[in-house]
Amino acid sequence: MTESSTRWLFGDQLGDYFLDDDDQQVVLVESRRVFRRRRFHRQKAHLVLSAMRHRAAELGERCTYLVTETYREALEQVEGPLSVVQPTTWAALHLVDTLVGEREIERLPARGYVTGRGEFGRWADGRGRRRLLMENFYRDARTRNDVLMKGAEPVEGRWNFDADNREPPPRSGRLDIPEPWWPEEDEIDAAVRADLDAMEADGIEFVGEDGPRRFAASSAEAQAALDHFVEHRLPTFGRYEDAMLTGDRWMAHSLISAPLNLGLLDPLAVVRTAEEAYVAGEAPISAVEGFVRQVMGWRDYIWNLYWYLGEDYRNENALKATTPLPEWFTRLDPTGTDARCLSWSLSSVREVGWAHHIPRLMVIGNYAQQRGWDPQELTDWFHRSFVDGYGWVMVPNVVGMSQYADDGVLGTKPYVGGGAYINRMSDFCGDCVYDPKKRTGEDACPFTVGYWGFLHRNREHLSGNFRMGQVLRNLDRLKDLDQLLEENPEFCA
Ligand code: SF4
Fold first, then answer.
1. Is there an atom of ligand 1 within 6 Å of 423 CB?
2. Which residue is closest in CA terms to ligand 1's atom 3?
3. Is the pLDDT of residue 61 over 60?
4. Ligand 1 centre and the CA of 446: distance in Å?
5. Is 453 close to ligand 1, i.e. is its CB under 6 Å away?
6. Closest ligand 1 atom to Cα of 446
7. Which of 11, 320, 333, 467 could share a disulfide with 413, CB 3.0–4.6 Å?
8. Alpha helices of 60-186 — where are they, by DSSP H?
9. For ligand 1, is residue 339 a contact (CB within 6 Å)?
10. What average pLDDT does the chain have?
11. Per-residue pLDDT tens for 231-243?
12. What domains can you pick out in the chain, each with its CATH number?
């Protein structure tokens, strides 16, 4: 059926590799209900609609583009057999399953990942939930795909260059590299902006600011962004991968996570491009390995765990964290906190729908975990607020990696840290009203307070984790814990 079927593409299946031949007919659906159900970031809504409409324009008469309330309404207008590549969320998969019972739809395996679900299953089965370590998966994927390998061994004798990739930011306050590649908006973007304005006038709510589109919305743009990154920024990427600077939210990051997750780039081709830069001597192994680890290691690991761990994984809440997200946070209001690092991170999300992985993990996620914010609410917030956020991305990243709600499947210990880490890896603390070293008093750093408060509140639960032994012993030795708890009763167990 595949050759003659019309390919139903979701909005994150936009690259050529989601089609089987150059003549295949396509249907793309803009469902308005998606925006009515959830308050997405305005720039995320813009990017997705722009990318879908750019794809439709590329396909021309081969594409039937429908704007309806629901997918079902749209597909009723399409005659003949359909085929669909496995969508990227459980909810979309259930929709497809329901429709399969009503009409002829061929379901095809997922595309857009280096390691498919079958290969992942072969690697994971029999290991047990707590032994699905990213590092082991990554090495297996490198070997299978012969990436940065010399025979059976990793090039330069090491699998992992993380230790070289943790430098604090330069004291100059800036990286000496060219700006990222930026897209130029066109008439499609203008039409998207007008439609989003009309939706807002019609009562659909968004969060965040509107602004120029900053992420690639077509395969050609995505390739330009990738080529520019590899040529100008990749050599610096590894070194400052974890650093944060007030004056440079982009640092040396690639900004290709959004087009990758829209299906506009083939991840293995992305990896090969970076590998070629290493082979040609244009980028050091620490930078290239760090980048490859993100694309075919972490990204594929997350994708596969989303499916492998099952649909109920999203509801896990091992630390019984039930505090609702504060309103200022859900409104992306940076004035809701005096903590400079958190305010800055929230501003970045508000202004561009993006912040790199350290503000996500060590500022926003860290703060939320310390205060016991509800991990499901937080997952939804990340999904809606980030241009590259999708269910499959955010469920394992937030429930597992960031919030430890899975009790140690993705991370062997909670990702919590005090102000000292943020002070070392950023230039935020100098101008902050708080002091990163202080845990009591008016200028006590909320991250330092939160770190000890989190350990105190979860002491019993974490006592069985051998990686937490030392920090819990440090907690026992803390002389001012009573004062800290008196000043911050929310951390009382
Ligand atoms: Fe953040 Fe604390 Fe540093 Fe202020 S002092 S910027 S709250 S880590």
1. yes
2. 429
3. yes
4. 7
5. no
6. 7
7. 467
8. 71-75, 90-100, 117-124, 134-145
9. yes
10. 95
11. 999 999 989 999 9
12. 6-108 (3.40.50.620), 117-177+233-308 (1.25.40.80), 315-491 (1.10.579.10)
The one-letter code for the residue type at 59 is: L
CB atoms closer than 10 angstroms to residue 328? 13
The best mutation among 371, 421, 431, 432 to test binding of ligand 1, ranked by most ligand atoms within 8 Å of the C-beta, falls on 432
Q: Would you state the pLDDT for residue 152?
A: 95
Q: Mean pLDDT across the stretch 108-121?
A: 95
Q: Which atom of ligand 1 is nearest to the CA of 339?
A: 7
Q: Judge whether 108 and 9 are in contact, CB under 8 Å.
A: no
- 265 in Cβ contact with 226 (< 8 Å): yes
Return the residue matching tokens 């009562």: 203
Please, are residues 421 and 242 in contact by the beta-carbon 8 Å criterion? no
For 259-287, write each residue's pLDDT tens digit.
Answer: 999 999 999 999 999 999 999 999 999 99
Q: Which atom of ligand 1 is nearest to the CA of 342?
A: 1
For 122-156, what is each residue's pLDDT tens digit?
999 888 777 889 999 999 999 999 999 999 999 99
d(CA 62, CA 287): 41
Sign of CA dihedral 437, 439, 441, 445: positive
Ligand 1 pocket, 362 CB below 6 A?
no
3-state DSSP assignment of residue 489: helix
Query: pTM for the complete prediction?
Result: 0.96
For 125, the 3-state DSSP assignment is coil
Residue 282 burial (C-beta neighbours within 10 Å; 0-12, 13-18, 19+):
middle
| 277/288 Cα distance (integer angstroms) | 8
Distance 432 CA to ligand 1 centre (A): 6
Q: Are strands 26-31 and 105-108 parallel, antiparallel or unpaired?
A: unpaired
Q: 164 pLDDT band (50/70/90 cuts)?
A: confident
